[in-house]
Amino acid sequence: MNKIIGITMGDFAGIGPEISLKAVEQDHYKDNAVIFGTKSIIEYYMDVLAIKSELNVIDNIQDFKAGAINLFNVVDIDFSKDMIGKVSAAAGDAAYKYIEKAIELSLKGDIGPVVTAPLNKEALHKGGHPFDGHTEIFAELTNTKKYTMMLWSDKLSVVHVSTHVPLRKACDLATKERVMECVDLAEDAMHKLGIQDPKIAVAGLNPHSGESGLFGNEEIEEIEPAVKEKQEEGKNVSGPVPPDTVFLKATQGKFDIVVAMYHDQGHIPMKLMAFDKGVNVTLGLPIIRTSVDHGTAFDIAGKGIASDVSMISAMELAFRFGLFVK
Q1: What does pLDDT average to over the chain?
Q2: Which residues contact 200 (CB under 8 A, 6 or more apart)?
């Protein structure tokens, strides 16, 4: 696998350009990463952050220069600091184009994994790209039909049956077929991280996993049959485990990964356990994609104080995934 990581700098009105530069400025990543972004914005933030490294602007990966900050200048923008911290169509459109270019080169094998800085969904829509987020963009541009979001940390890992949908709809999406699909994706992700026989927990949807139908029938009709079928295939899967205890058990080492039924069920424990170091991964793609697990932070954008901890964690996990990809 190509070892050069592509970093999309996200919505330029947020902290994406800053954390991308901070991460790449570290000596190790100067030899292994290229930013997909805009030259005028990167130059502005290099000045804000007092970065003295050479900026190597390229339009071909063969011009990559180890030891420099490498940049694919995807789209030119007449940038001013007044644009920082504000939702705009220009920022949303640019964020999409950074991703589009990085995916194109990753699919060709010119670069390896793609690591994404945060985008703003409102800006993305204003820019003419009506996606729910990164996950759906990557699925569309790689023609991937079976995929899911994984949140990873060294304390807890979670995949999701559904993510950015209303809670009422999430209940309908907790089907046997989708749960089985997510179990398969979770197992494959653990294999790619070097865990050969992962212990997978499937969370219940309802309180106490429905209490034998007293609080809902989804466990009886959909989730339990999915678990049983995967057990019959030889997978090390348990469930439905009551959602109020499954994450505690996972942090205690009883499970390697949890299949959560909807967005907040999985995100709340992850944000509690690993807000700064959590990594978002899209499973099922033909390429590796990891991301920071936080937003654009418009309130602190442009101040030079944003933490790059999650970005570095995302880059490190991308490298780790790559070790087990043939």
Answers
A1: 93
A2: 183, 186, 187, 190, 235, 236, 237, 238, 255, 256, 257, 258, 259
pLDDT score of 74: 97
Tokens representing 132 are 């729910």
CA distance 232 to 92: 46
Tokens of 173: 């999406």
Whether this model's pTM surpasses 0.90: no
Q: Which of 24, 101, 28 is nearest to 311 (CA)?
A: 24
Label the pairing between strands 289-292 and 279-283.
antiparallel
- The pair phi, psi for residue 21, each rounded to 5°, is -65, -45
Pair of tokens at residue 177? 């077929």
Cα–Cα distance between 103 and 97 in angstroms, integer? Answer: 10
- Spatial separation of the C-alpha atoms in residues 178 and 195, rounded to whole Å: 23
Q: What pairs with residue 257 in β-bridges? A: 200
Closest by CA position to 246, among listed 228, 220, 270, 276:
270
DSSP 218-286: HIIIIIHHHHHHHHHTT--EEEEEPTTTHHHHHHTTS-SEEEESSHHHHHHHHHHHHTTT-EEEEET-S
Q: Note the pLDDT tens digit of each residue in 202-241.
A: 999 999 998 888 899 999 999 999 999 999 999 999 999 9
| Helix axes 224-232 and 176-192, enclosed angle (nearest 10) | 50
Residues 6+ apart with CB under 8 A from 80: none
